[in-house]
Design goal:
With 404 residues, this protein is α/β, with parallel strands linked by helices. It folds into three domains: 88 residues, Alpha-Beta Plaits, CATH 3.30.70; 88 residues, Alpha-Beta Plaits (2-Layer Sandwich); 157 residues, Rossmann fold. The chain has 16 helices and 15 strands. The radius of gyration is 27 Å and the shape is elongated. The two termini are 53 Å apart.
Length: 404
């Protein structure tokens, strides 16, 4: 009669262990049903689920495995599995899989306890937990340190929206970011990044910088803040702000461009995704002059923004062409996806303001970055704790895969 046995081996990691055990099992034509291995701080945990065919000498095989692990200073445990239990386990492979990603400056047990309690309450089983960030040094961590773990859970989820809201509440309370995604074919098959520019790719609102140079900073800043919070129509507010720039010398644009600071992680994110074959785009309610400046600096493929009108070396207080507002951004995103022959599910959109919500809502992965409260609450995903390169974790990439 055939037997199903779970073999668990643990102890200090040694080279050749898996090879030795596989060689012993191969002597009796034993089938491997499942296998998993993890090493944490040079301590190995290996699990092998095997089917021992009828007539095979299972006692002899297991004895040899036990002797070999003892020689290596490790522990082995053997657990018989009945066929009913095994078939129930096999039937579970069709259940939906979910990805919960925790991003923080440092990881604590309290973070893990709060998140896993929610996962348990929604009757999902955790399949695996992986650390995506690099190894953590002892002592005081630098301000830009990064910690990320990815939890894979399995099971039907009746109220994903409610669970996402609960995770967001924890994120706010504990000053971390928590992202929930369904595990599907598109997760590592995204092909296009679309970025807002002001307060997303760069850590400033360019129009505020221009207004300061024109001596109308407070007036423009007040309108900008109301527009980003969604309190007033973007197009109307934009026209009002640009009008206040009338008479500004065009040379100021070059000076402001040279002083722009990239947001944390922007350069690493863009350079990494370009190496991975992604296309990149800026879809901005700001000005094309600064979008093209960033295009040259970062190697962005597409730039769409507003053309600030300049006559005789002076800003006229108007823009040329259609204003790039929220709906225009969404329209441009659809056009870019069609141009690149990809689905919207393969698009990642990143922004911080209310005028970014239309494109965030149609992208396969819409991310509010250090966003205003109304945007953070409305977007499916948000990052406020880490820099832009934290998005790489949401795509499932580890620091090891994206370093260098």
């Amino acid at each position: 009669m055939r037997q199903i046995i779970l073999i668990n081996v643990s102890g200090a990691d040694k080279p050749g262990l898996t090879s030795s055990i596989a060689d012993i099992l191969s002597r009796e034509q034993i089938q491997i049903l499942d296998i998993g291995q993890a090493v944490i701080h040079d301590t190995l945990s290996l699990g092998i689920l095997v089917e021992v065919p009828a007539g095979a000498e299972s006692a002899s095989v297991l004895k040899d495995v036990l002797f070999r692990t003892h020689e290596l200073g490790m522990h082995a445990r053997f657990t018989p599995i009945d066929e009913t239990s095994y078939m129930a386990w096999v039937a579970g492979q069709g259940k939906p899989r979910h990805i919960i990603t925790l991003l923080a400056r440092k990881l604590t047990a309290k973070h893990l306890a709060r998140i896993t309690s929610i996962i348990s309450r929604y009757n999902m089983n955790i399949d695996r937990i992986d650390r995506l960030s690099g190894r953590v040094p002892l002592g005081e961590l630098p301000p830009d340190s990064k910690a990320c773990i990815e939890i894979t859970a399995r099971g039907p989820l009746q109220e994903p929206g409610q669970m996402r809201r609960e995770l967001l509440e924890i994120a706010v309370q504990m000053d971390v970011d928590i992202a929930y995604q369904e595990d599907n074919v598109f997760r590592r098959n995204r092909r296009l990044f679309a970025f807002d520019m002001d307060s997303t790719l760069i850590a400033a609102e360019v129009i505020d910088e221009l207004a300061a140079a024109a001596g109308v900073g407070p007036e423009v800043a007040a309108i900008t803040e109301r527009a980003m919070r969604g309190e007033i129509d973007f197009s109307d507010s934009f026209a009002a702000r640009v009008a206040l720039l009338k008479g500004l010398d065009a040379s100021v644009l070059e000076r402001v461009a040279a002083s722009l600071q990239l947001s944390e992680g922007a350069e690493r994110l863009v350079s990494t995704v370009r190496k991975l074959g992604y296309k990149t785009a800026i879809l901005s309610g700001g000005f094309t002059y600064f979008g093209r400046y960033l295009q040259q600096r970062l190697g962005i493929d597409y730039v769409f923004a507003n053309e600030l009108e300049i006559v005789d070396g002076k800003v006229t207080g108007q823009v040329s062409g259609q204003i790039v507002d929220g709906e225009r951004k969404a329209q441009l995103l659809r056009e870019l996806a069609a141009r690149e022959n990809i689905l919207l599910d393969q698009v990642i959109a990143v922004g911080d303001g209310a005028n970014d919500l239309p494109m965030l809502s149609i992208a396969g992965l819409g991310i509010a970055f250090r966003a205003k409260p109304i945007v953070k609450e409305s977007a499916r995903h948000s990052i406020s704790t880490l820099g832009l390169d934290g998005i790489l974790y949401l795509l499932g990439y580890s620091d090891r895969e994206t370093s260098g």
